[in-house]
Amino acid sequence: MRSDSKELNEKLVNNLLNVTVEDPIFKSLVRIVRYRLPEDYREVFDKSVQLGLLAADSFFLHYSVCPLIRSKNTDRILEAARMLMLMYMNSEEFVRTRKSTVLDEDSSMIHAIELTKAMIEYLMKYVQGGLGKGRSRAEARGSTAKGQGRAREPASPYDIVQDEGNREHVGTRQPVPDERELEGILERHLEEALLYAIGKAGSLAWFSKTIKEVMGLRGAGLHEGIYEKLIDLSSYLMEVRDAQVILELARSTLESAPRNLHIRKERDERGESIRGYFISKKIERALARELAMPDEVFNAKLAGEGFLAREKETVKEGALYVLLDKCLPEGTRVLMSDGSMLPVEDVREGEEVLSVKITPCLQTGTLLPTSTSRIEVRVEGARVARKVCSGIQPIYKLITTRGTLKATANHVIPVIRRGVAIEVPLALAKPGDIVLYNGRGLAESTKEVKPEESDISQAAVVGVRSTGQSARTYDLTLEKNHYFIADGIVVHNSGSMNGFKLIWSRSVALVLYRLSLARKLNFKLRMFDTRVYPESTPLEDPLEILDAILKVPASGGTRISASLERAVEDIVKDRLTSKSNTIVLITDGEDNVVFAKQPLKKNNITLITVMVGGENEVLRSLSDVYVKVTPDRDGALQIVRLTDASFYKQHSHS
């Protein structure tokens, strides 16, 4: 690693005035960023003092309440970076990113680490002789510039994003340049590399902040490996739409949850939980202020209705154990490329629909906003790569000022919300959101139109309603563009195979985890299908819980009995049987359950069975609470209230 003396000999200064290169904390940040880079990235990092200065500047720029930029930098590369920083600080993207990073050490550090990694990835595209299978599409088209011996510049940073899946680690596919060559590459391509890196780092910082909020993580460096886990989960969220929907549903439910889900209940001087107030004839239960009243008032209360007293709850807090059972309807009209309209069930693979190209594509999905000033919308033909029947599912209606769309609750649509373009599940569209709409009024008409007449305009969302009906649903996956027109409204070809019930139930598990934090309960999670996962011990670490909820795939088969047996064994093993324990079983009940109620009673376990569709009479007889819910926000809040109530028993009083 380069020495501090080398930095001083170079006489380079960073661009921030709040914290400078002379401050020990600044040098520490450079070392921390380097330590958290992959080993092959460090080779490049060590050969450029400027990369270290930019990394530390990135941290303090996003962490500080009021970052100050110096008026000039004598180094050409750092001066160019300073000008870009000033432009960035005046952008909407900076304002959005700062909401995730100000005074948040973890998110700011992730931004600095990912910005450095992304810059190195981008710059290594231009290393002499480094072209190969990892090159971008623009490079593949243009090969090398004549007489230059280096890659042709990509049309935009998005070209590199599109090819990321084929990229290997830098150090394994091309040589590391020497210091002079790296400085030349950095000087020529700083602007595009920095803009690409800022976008990618901002996305990861935003997702990491959202993860911390949903999982109730507080403070910096909560435990070893937090950065690596947050980066891994944030990267996964950027790529997988269903994972984004799970997190968004959990966050939306938490925002609507009772206030006492976030704050511990009030306790008296003896540490007992206070439920509320009631009238008691017993003087020893009366509030102190009742005893301090004038004699005539005191005597009147004593002879009359009684005194105001605190109503208390008793609870022996044990385990909250969650067992988790691991789309357009028929008749929806799809606009074809020839101008005709076909019911979605009649569209065949290989046929061409009229797709909608949104540039840049909203690849970041449900959670990450994109400024409408940066998108361009146009229509063109696209072949149907795959058509999937998603089974019978509940149908919701999106009502707009120009027509309606019927779809499943999790079908993704692009909307404009307060001037920002985002993707949301249909169920989370809000009144006032703007949807993209076919300007020829196809939501109300079956007439055929020419593709060139199929312009895209806007319509306002009035609301989302459940139809109270279920229907056979379909998903179309396109070869390109990923958006098509259904009943006149632009929708995403989600390609989701998991179904909304699975997504919703996993979001509920996250909300129940937050309940366990508020109540200081021992939270445990297992998932099950034909076997119980994990096989060894239940999940208890917050980021491991989130990792499993987002990543563990669904599969066929259900063994409810085995999961209940394992949960009881875990509670007994952890010596929690003298405390109040609750098992929340979330399932569709499709299994022949063989299980006795005696182990539950013996070990002080309340069983709450949440049926997401389906019916199971054995589970009904076993359960203390058996409830059938609709997979929506109200259903999630109902589960939270039932689970919370299972831990508290009101004192009897007279």
TrEMBL record:
One Gene Ontology BP term is: intein-mediated protein splicing
The domain of life for this entry's organism is Archaea
**What segments bear the compositional bias annotation Basic and acidic residues?**
164-175
A Gene Ontology cellular-component term: cytosol
Q: Which CDD domains match?
A: Hint
SUPFAM superfamilies in alphabetical order: Hedgehog/intein (Hint) domain, vWA-like
Q: Where is this region: Disordered?
A: 134-175
What InterPro entries would the database entry show? Answer: Hint_dom_C, Hint_dom_N, Hint_dom_sf, Intein_C, Intein_N, VWF_A, vWFA_dom_sf
Name all VWFA domain ranges.
508-625
Q: Which PANTHER family match?
A: PROTEIN VIAA
Protein name per UniProt? VWA domain-containing protein
Q: Which organism is it from?
A: Fervidicoccus fontis
